[in-house]
Design goal:
Layout (H helix, E strand, L loop, with lengths): L1 H8 L5 H8 L8 H10 L3 E3 L2 E3 L2 E3 L3 E3 L9 H33 L1
Antiparallel strand pairs: 1-4, 2-3
Helix pairs in contact: 1-3, 2-3
Length: about 100
């Protein structure tokens, strides 16, 4: 749901790519939103990662054509988008709560 929400909120119609690419992550809950955010920010996430001093070869997520190095612009863009997502979720939760409260009266 999170991945679909990210794609819809930022009008990125790459649902098939998100599901194919996101399933490469060992966690069923992490790969899809990571891929969606990478596609929205036009970057590439993942790859070889250090865990407890050992290098673990992990899949890349996002557009294969994107540069593997994340720029400061992309990082700022991701944080800005995260803030927009958080704001939208808070407002949607408040609206849903108010609607349920009114409906129960």
């Amino acid at each position: 749901m999170t991945a679909l929400f990210i794609l819809l909120l930022f009008a990125k119609w790459q649902i098939k790519k998100t599901f194919i690419n996101g399933k490469l992550h060992p966690s069923p809950n992490a790969g899809l939103p990571i891929t969606a955010m990478a596609l929205v920010c036009q970057c590439r996430l993942g790859g070889p990662t250090m865990y407890f001093g050992k290098l673990k070869d992990k899949a890349y997520f996002g557009d294969a054509k994107a540069n593997q190095q994340i720029t400061s612009t992309q990082l700022k863009q991701a944080l800005s988008k995260r803030n927009l997502i958080d704001t939208f979720l808070i407002l949607a939760s408040a609206l849903l709560n108010a609607t349920l409260l009114l409906a129960s009266q």
